[in-house]
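Good morning C.,

I know you're traveling, so I'll keep this short. The sequence:
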Amino acid sequence: MPRFYCPAPLVTDALLELPAGAARHVQVLRLQPGDAITLFNAGPGWDSAASPGGEFDATVTRMGRSDVQVQVGTHRATEREPTRRVHLAVGMPANDRMDWLVEKATELGVASIQPLMTERSVLRLSGERAEKKVAHWQSVAISACEQCGGNRVPAVHPVLTLTQWLKTQPAVASDQQRLLLSLRDGSVAMHATPFTHEAMFLSGPEGGLGGTEEDLALAHGFAPVSLGPRILRAETAALAALTTLALLP
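The tokens, ready to paste straight into the viewer:
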């Protein structure tokens, strides 16, 4: 059954005009009145007090030229999210690799993505161009969530430099940890690391983080962990870390 992210209050039996993005998708699929779909509305900044999460059955009731009306049906408390909340801060890889990284990280259940510019970053963004890129990546995350069965769209945060971002980080809570993917001596094998309920992973761009940048991350409470002796591409390293966590009990 087609699934659509609908950033609006969902109430059983209510008639609802789908937002433009979802309506366009319904029309592309050539759905007709009477066809069944699934809706979910837990997006970036989701407030559990305002939305029950999970997903809703719905039925298309009207197809206009540019608008689609549906009737919201039964709520199902279905959740397919990982047991741990994992946030990813990553030095943006160049070209379309960041698109691919956002898509696959969403499929693996990442809670949020922080794009970073570092000293070795090839991709440099600021101003309107950065805003457009973030909006594009957020739409990639929505599409990936619709496809994979996830009910919570991860937030893609505004682009920051590594230094700017580290200055915004609060003190580490007892049930959280900060991990730096690193090849430096003393890094602990990731599979041997005990994990808490919530984790933040910091990973570099092509070429990795510089030594001074790693030192700065360590000073902000990050512990170095390793995925092994091989040098992985920027997007591969980040996804390998998420996959490792997704497979752990």
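Safe travels,
E.
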